[in-house]
Amino acid sequence: MQQFAGTIFGMPMRRMARLAVIVVSIAVVLTLSIFFLNDQIDRPGFWRVALALLLIMEAAYFAAVAFLVVGIPVLAVLVVRVRGTSRRRLARFLLGSLSLTLGLLAAEAITAVWIRHAGHSTVVPVGGIAPKLRIDRAQMWPPVSLKNVRLPTRFEDPPGDTDIDVVVVGESSAEGVPFNSWLSIGRLVEWKLNQAMPGRRVNVQILAISGSILEHQHRKLADLKRRPDLLIVYCGHNEFSARLSGARDLPYYVDDQEPSGWQMLCEGAESISPVCEMIRRTKEKCRVEIPPSRSGDRDLVDRPAYTAAEYTLLLADFRRRLDAIAAWGQRIGATMILIPPAGNDAGYEPNRSFLPASTTRDRREAFRREFLAARDLEQADPQAAIAAYRALIDREPGFAEAHFRLGALLDAAGETEDSYRHFAAARDSDGFPMRCLVAFQDVYREVATKHGAILVDEQAEFHAVGHRGRLDDEMFQDAMHPSLRGQIALAQATVRELKVRHAFGWPERAPALTIDPKACVAHFRIGPEGWKRVCLWGVHFGNFCEWMRYDPTPRRERRLTYARAYDRLVAGESVEAVNLPNLGIPRPVPVPVATSTASRSTMAAARLHDTTLPTPKRSDHR
Questions:
Q1: How far apart are CA 521 and CA 553, in angstroms?
Q2: Deepest in the core among 39, 242, 299, 535, taking most CB within 10 A?
Q3: Facing residues of 165 across strands?
Q4: Residue 169, strand partner residues
């Protein structure tokens, strides 16, 4: 019997078998190559390879479409005119071209359905809003329905269950980074709850994950099987940086150059081709994971990485989701802890500083010269530099770098409250926000008041216990992740508020609410290897963020400081000898005196808003 006899859809089975072997072999090789690359190169390198493949795919797609648009009419004419063997060959080419066209049309249709579905769940996709979209200022667009996220109201808890189920929602800060191998705010609260109520079991479920946003965490709540007795929401740093690349450049100033021909071609293709739009979004996902170029092409007078429409949509969606989560927690009887994330305001510089969009190139150059002149005065005549920065801020209150440098000078002069406000203003006017903005913090305060949730205001708590009221390296490990002392401060404030409310029948004679740092390090077994890993995290974070701003020098020095600390620990020195404010056993966190959490939060918010915190003006962003 002859093997592979017969045909399938007119194709000999022998040829069909060869084709199947080739396709399977290619699939296997591609899969193995992906795993090999993921194992052999670092994470940014992996995403660079993926970006390169997507750029090739984009060019190939344009070439294929161009060929089909031009080639099919030409082939059709030739098939009609040519005779003989050539005609049959041309007919095959024409049939293959038509089949490819049908395949591309099917891909466009499937992709359009996928994008439409995704548009109902995310208000701003990764990569931002495509230029072809227009936002109605009076309402959110696209309309994101929160009804798509069905949070459970029935759970599998057995009758009479006395366990305390703790659920933590958030991103890397809530996950505990860079201490997440040992502890996090959820684990610290679990430890203290076990001490206060030894007869009850505490179950902690940490939904928080690095790089997440509130939208993703909102969806994860839908999978809960047990009713959370305590729901901690601690999210907000990634709303911009998880969607937008640190290298994103938009035409912002009125005299910006027109886009290149290739950019106009890509934008035009995206306006009519869902596949091109999908390729663009996937490219932007890669760019979010890739550190900015080390070419040093960022300017002192930079431009924002987001548009006013994107800012408005993200803030509105954040408010709706946080409100929906708090309302759900209230409905199911969970004790709600809302923690608006703060940032390392005094110890970490803004990424981008920018002027109003109407500022011409000549005025930007003049402002740059005045700023650099003020910076040159900092060492020789600090008071003159302070006066110069104040004059610049009076004229341009939204320039982040001026606020930051003025804050540093005021702090050195002992004017701590004034410096505190300017540091916060620098963070809040950053053109590429990696730290939670004040407007998003205010959403937490509004929602906590509306739903009677416990507000553990990180900004207020850290301001109350930080050295001279600063939010700096003592309270943070980098730009936004709390240090060990910061995590202890948050957990201590959380259990303090739980006891005030007698949550879970909290006994009056419960142990002291303070967390002893030495006991904490011993309990979670953070040893020399742990501190080495924390140093390596500092190096990693520095590598990623160093070139996001016009002057990478401070971040490079910070990265090298962690590298030197790591080398000293490897050489056998103690972590105390390294003498960094966020390494080793920290000093205890005092309990703030005779002021309620709500009062501290109100006062902290008032202090922040004493300095004009510039929000994006609709006329300043296109």
A1: 33
A2: 535
A3: 203
A4: 233
